[in-house]
Structures are given as structure tokens and as C-alpha cells.
Amino acid sequence: MVEENANKVPGVRVGIDLRGKVALVTGSSSGLGMEIAKYLAKAGATVAIHYHSEKQQADQVAANIVGNGGKAVVFGGDVSNKSEVESIFNSIDEELGSIDILVNNAGIDGKRELCGDDNTEDWEKVIAINLMGPYYCAREAVKRMKKSGHGVIINITSVHEYLPWSGYTAYCSAKAGLSMFTKTLAQEVSDFGIRVVAVAPGAIKTPINKAVWGNPDTYKDLLEKIAMPRMGEPIDIAEAVTFLASDMASYITGTTLVVDGGMLLYPAFKHGG
């Protein structure tokens, strides 16, 4: 049931109230993770801002949240390192209490390399960060959520859990693997009050892909791959994640919410076969 005062949470859709919840967003010092962290904070959650190497940026994100009346604390570590992940969660336990929401956002595209001509270490790095990282974090989250009897784990995948992308076999394999991990883990923890879902972004306008949307030619080519006539904005993903983290999505688990403006609709067929 939605609380009567839920519509008073500033800057967030009516009915979403995450006050009293602790949320960890991995890779939240910039890009999508930063926007997700800010939006969860607007909904009332206390947010653990995570970074790997960009501490100054993470501090700025936390300061922005606090400056706008929210609560945020910064934690650093490598999500692809099991011991460091354990340390992150232990530190959150000590400073904020056990987490209620985990958003596995940290990830990399990796280098564009064709299989057979690639460096196996590059492939392994993408898998380590994009798949092993969410596993290590989810593993720690599940331990805590089972004790509390509730929790939500949200894995950020990609349209490339569905779409092949030449030169990025590691990235596509990791995202497809993360999708099946989402489904299987959701099945495993369904009796403990824990939901596990995924969000698959399409083309989202972030600094990491500015080389594409900042160039008129490549931007035009990209728009031809999207049914809607625009790229997505980070807020589009942040709103989807916040909805899934809330009680408004209490009967949703083990599935992927695609937020892609219709990229998976094969928009080239809009004008005939």
C-alpha cells in the first residue's frame, strides 16, 4: 500500500518512497550510476556511493546529494576483487547498516577486438568486472537480505544481452550472462522476500559515449537504430531503477526491463521490409 505522504517526496514520481532504505550503487561516481544514486536519494534512500579510481568525483556526487537534503557516504573498491567487495559491504554495515537495495551498475565496454585477434586478458577483464563483479556483490547482499527478510537487487545489463555487437564478444557475453544470473538468482531467493531484476539500457547519452552523440554523422546513424527519435537520457534509467527498487514493483522479479526507446524493435522495418 502506498503511504499517504509518498507524493511529497521531492522530484520523484508519485508513490515512490524509499525512506529508511540503504542502497548501494556500484560505479556511481559518474554516468548512469551517478544519476541512479541521485535519484534514489531523492526518493529518500541513504545511498552508498561506490567508486574504483575516481574518489574525487565520488565525493562530489555525495556532496551534491547531501547538499540537496539527501544522505550519502562514499566507499571505494574493485568489484572484480572478492576480498575488496567483502570489505565494501563490511564498511557499509558499520557506517550505514545492512543494505536493502543493491544496484550492480559498474561495468566497462572493453576494447573493440575481433575474436582470434584479441588479447585474452582484455576479454577476461570485461568478464571480471561486468559479470564476476555483480556476482560478488549480489553474494554479499543476499547474505544480509536473507537475515532481514527483504531486499532488491537490480542488475544493469544492456540491450546487448539480446543484440550481438561485433568486436565486443566479452561485453555481450557478460551482459547475457548477467541476465541469466538475474533470473536464476531470483528463483533461488524468492522465498526470502528478495527480488532480483535487471534493467537493459539502450543508447543513453553519457560522457562515455560523447564521441558518438557529439558527432553529427555518427549521431544520425545511431538515431536510425532507435525507434523513438531520440537517445535516452540518464534520468530514463534512474527512474526505471527507482521504480523497480520500490514497493510499486513488489510483484516483479526475475525479468529484464528494457529501456531502449525501441532499439530492439528493429526500427529499420518501420518503413517496410
Please describe what this structure looks like.
The structure is a single chain. This protein has helices at 31-42, 55-67, 82-95, 120-148, 169-189, 210-213, 216-223, 234-245; strands at residues 22-25, 46-51, 71-76, 101-104, 151-156, 194-201, 256-259. It is α/β, with parallel strands linked by helices and 273 residues long. The protein has one domain (14-260): Rossmann fold (3-Layer(aba) Sandwich), CATH 3.40.50.720. Strands 3-2-1-4-5-6-7 form a seven-stranded parallel beta sheet, sandwiched between helices. α1 runs parallel beside α2, α1 packs across α8 (234-245) and α3 runs parallel beside α4.
Question: Could you name the key traits of this structure?
Answer:
single chain, 273 residues, alpha/beta, Rossmann fold, globular, disordered N terminus
Question: Layout of SSEs?
Answer:
Elements: E1 22-25, H1 31-42, E2 46-51, H2 55-67, E3 71-76, H3 82-95, E4 101-104, H4 120-148, E5 151-156, H5 169-189, E6 194-201, H6 210-213, H7 216-223, H8 234-245, E7 256-259
Parallel strand pairs: 1-2, 1-4, 2-3, 4-5, 5-6, 6-7
Helix pairs in contact: 1-2, 1-8, 3-4, 4-5
Give a quick summary of the entry.
About 40% of the residues lie in helices and about 15% in strands.
